[in-house]
Structures are given as structure tokens and as C-alpha cells.
Amino acid sequence: xxxxxxxxxxxxxxxxxxxxxxxxxxxxxxxxxxxxxxxxxxxxxxxxxxxxxxxxxxxxxxxxxxxxxxxxxxxxxxxxxxxxxxxxxxxxxxxxxxxxxxxxxxxxxxxxxxxxxxxxxxxxxxxxxxxxxxxxxxxxxxxxxxxxxxxxxxxxxxxxxxxxxxxxxxxxxxxxxxxxxxxxxxxxxxxxxxxxxxxxxxxxxxxxxxxxxxxxxxxxxxxxxxxxxxxxxxxxxxxxxxxxxxxxxxxxxxxxxxxxxxxxxxxxxxxxxxxxxxxxxxxxxxxxxxxxxxxxxxxxxxxxxxxxxxxxxxxxxxxxxxxxxxxxxxxxxxxxxxxxxxxxxxxxxxxxxxxxxxxxxxxxxxxxxxxxxxxxxxxxxxxxxxxxxxxxxxxxxxxxxxxxxxxxxxxxxxxxxxxxxxxxxx
Length: 426
What we know:
The chain is an alpha/beta fold. 54% of the residues lie in helices and 15% in strands.
């Protein structure tokens, strides 16, 4: 349904125009009537109508000035003038403003309806053209995305020179690869998704598309019904890859109901090394599959991937204890794996490796679990609002808190509080 606004300084004519017909029969929703052009323009700035029916001669702002202002804001708005001036100068102005109709007072209802029908035909034709154009663009983007996925999947197995790859990627509209870093992430599903393959893959695409951060840029490459691959492309400084993929792991589980293991490769700026990065990510994913978590290639290849200076010489120090102390003291703040590692003076990869060996989970997973434990305590011991509790345990958004809580506790925070309250009453 299209929208209609009417302006006339004569209240009797304004009422007649508003009630002359049931505008809904014309597929029009009359959203407002106004005594002058300025009032209509103010309303249009909030919700621009599709059609405006206006007198020419009005106080405060006449129809000509109104038409100019509306066309400047929305060139596609349809304007019909109603005037007692059978004047050639006004007709010329109307033509210059690309007015859709011009009706003289006293107006003939049949002429008004005929003019309105013509305008509605124009609107429907334009709407159809926009729909066809949007559909064509969507189809073109879908074909481009599929072609890009197929091309990148081929590079995982068959290396090509960087210059050739960059040239071909520009043809697929993947540009701005200068000074980029690449990582490959290999995802293993906890069950075969053959029966719902398309839905699961589209679900993961939706998760990736809805991420608020512009980087890294993800390219999803389905491999088979148990695995898929992600190519991560980003500029320095490097984001916290472990935390990013751990959150992605959670989002996939929430959106699709599947648990996953994710292994990721080392970083490289060379597209020709994609086969090596793919192999690294697959090896790391195999290591992480037993625990269904996130593991980096550096963590299973510490001797090769870490510089000697990054490996602590004082092996007697309680590095994990320092990391736990930092988490317990700072869980209410937006901390990351990098922050926790820095507290123990370790590199992120080595810190995550040491932490996982000692605690049986990644730093990211431990932070999440500890925050939810604290939230459970607050839900039981206080009457604070859930939104405030979410903030007090380090979550800036209520939605992310709810998702994390439900994933760990198996129920919403509200349900948890109710169950604990009922248990105390008994």
C-alpha cells in the first residue's frame, strides 16, 4: 500500500479531499491532512509519502515551494496540484517540477480519481522496476559470492602465484588486499549435517554477515557435510583471533544447534601459501575436536611457531595462577585472551596452550564460565535487574549475556532465578 498526504488551507476542501473516497480502495493509506505546506513538509521529513495532493495557494508555504522542497528530498514523490488558477505560468512551473497532475477548482471528482489512477500506475511500475533491479543485483551478488567461494576453495588445494591470484580476485570484486594478513580456520561439526546442509551453511553465512565488526572479512567455503573452511582477511593490528573464533563457535551453536571444533592456521600475507595454511588449520582442528573448542596451529606447534624468546625460561613460575588471578579480579571488565596472557607476560598462543593443559579449556571459555558462575550467584543472592547483573559480570549487551547464560546453564537467567527462588521457599 502506498501513502498519501493532503494539504489545503480551506478546511472544508481539505475535509472533502480526505473523504471524497475510501482511499484504501486505491491502495492508498491517508497518513495526514494539513492546513499549509510547511506543516505537511514537517510531517514528510519524518515519513516521506508516496503521493502528495496539495493546493497551490496557501499561507506559510505554498504548493510550489512545498513541491520544490519535497522533490529535493525525494525526487520520486508524486505531486498533484489543485488550484483555482487556470494560469499558464503555474502550469509551466508544474511541468518544470515534474508534477504528476494538475486539477482546477472547483475540481471534478472523476478527474481527480482518473489522475490518481494514473499516478498509482506509475508508482506500481516504478515499484516493479525497483524489485526487478534488486532481484537482479541480488542474483548477481549471489553468483559473484559463489564464484569467489569456488575460486578460493580451489586455491586451498592448488597454489598459484600471488600476482595472478590478486588479479583474478579483483575481477571477483575482492580488492584492498594490500598489506593484508590471512588465516584459514577449519570447522568440524559434531554431527553429519547432510539432511540440513543448505540450512546450516546459510545459517553460518547469516552469523558471519551479522557481525558488527568490519574485520576480519570472512569467506566461507563448504567442504563436505562434516566440515567447512573460513578464510579470514584482515589488516593489522591483528584482532584477538582465539576470542573471535570462540565467539563464532558460540554463535554457530546458538543459531544452528550444532557444536563445532575450530582449528586455525598461522598468519601469512601470501595467497600462494593458502594450501599450507589450510593444512595447518586442519591439523589444529583435529587436535581441538576432542574437546570441541578453538585451537591455533601455533598451540600444537609451539617449538616451530614461537620464537625462543617467547618461551618462558623460568618454568617454575605459576603462569596459570597469574592468569586465573587476573580473570578473577577483572572479569567484570571487557578482557580478552591477549589481556590475560599479558598479565602473565606470555604470548597469547603460549598462554592459551599452558592454560588449556592446566584447566582443560581455553582462556575464553574459562572467562565465560566464570562470569556465568558469578551471575548465578547474583541471581540467587540479590534482586538486581538482569540487565544490571549482565553489566556487572562484564557483558555490554543483554543479548550476548542471555545467549552465554543459556548455553552454559541450559536455561535463561529468569528461569534460573525462578527455580532457585522456588527451591529456597520449600
